[in-house]
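User: Watch each token:
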Amino acid sequence: MIVLDANVLIALFDSSDAHHVRAEQLLDDHADELMSLSSLTLAEFLIRPTAAGRATQAQTFIGNMGIVVSPVLGDDAAHLAQVRAETGLKMPDAVVLWLAISSHAAMMTFDDHLSEVAQGLGIKVLGTSIGL
């Protein structure tokens, strides 16, 4: 399984994004793998499309990709707090990292800092040049 960061989906959805082609290639390269994201990451992705009146299109886009949306549960709170406290990541990134940790999954992100932290914890990261 691969946990997706919002920046990958933002780039994939917006053809004018600087990382659009890179996002397409990454998703094509890993099309046979299960993709997942947290409900918070989904909300983060939906901000721009919602502001532009394209929320339905964006939700359909995610639905058509077959991405599993994992809820952030009350039981996750203590783990998220620990990840945030130990890494200094912002909460949206801590949520992505925690989902990867708890799912024993790889991660796909364009965020070099998140990538560096994740790789330091032994998580396979796709999308950044850190550690390559």
Q: What stands out?
A: Helices lie at 6-13, 20-29, 39-51, 55-65, 77-87, 91-103, 112-120.
